[in-house]
Design a protein that fits this description.
The protein has one domain (5-157). It has helices at 5-12, 14-32, 43-64, 71-85, 104-115, 126-138, 143-157; strands at 39-41, 88-90. By secondary structure, it is mainly alpha-helical. It is 64% helix and 4% strand. It is globular.
């Protein structure tokens, strides 16, 4: 039985939505804003990002008859919706400089996603980091494929074979 976004968000619950919203807001304040002071987090867009994440993930769980999404799916759907919604904006007075400033949403997405794997961007090799940024910025990807990529990355970071 299909559910409307409103129905899904009601099933998820406001507390869970707010917890995700505040955790992403904290990642921005602690990890992004100090390094990119010419940016701001658009709260309305972040709320939309969180709601879209929960709706999309719930649709996937319903379709595949999954009770709980694993951490790779959570990471992948998080990355997908941050990249798609682009909640971090440049200040009007910003003078974009630096290698990655225009990719700040992709970096934010990777940070937020990798947290679910108990990993961080610092653990990625430079070629892997650049490849992921390129993929997120320039390629179309779906959350299911990204989930497989997150599994592979987790295995590589933990010295295990996928």
């Amino acid at each position: 039985m299909p559910f409307t976004p409103k129905d899904i968000l009601k099933r998820v619950g406001e507390e869970k939505i707010l917890n995700r919203f505040y955790s992403l807001d904290t990642i921005y304040k602690v990890k992004i804003q100090p390094k990119c002071p010419n940016t701001f987090l658009q709260k309305f867009m972040l709320r939309n990002t969180v709601e879209s994440y929960f709706c999309d993930l719930q649709h996937s769980k319903d379709f595949h008859n999954i009770e709980l999404a694993d951490r790779h799916k959570v990471a992948a759907f998080t990355i997908k919706w941050i990249v798609k919604s682009r909640p971090i904006q440049l200040l009007e007075t910003a003078n974009p400089s630096g290698r990655y400033i225009l990719l700040v949403n992709e970096i934010f997405a990777l940070m937020a996603g990798l947290i679910h794997l108990s990993a961080s961007i610092d653990q990625l090799s430079d070629p892997m980091f650049r490849s992921l940024l390129y993929t997120l910025h320039n390629r179309t990807f779906d959350a299911e494929s990204m989930s497989a990529m997150m599994y592979t990355i987790e295995c590589a970071l933990n010295g295990k074979k996928p």
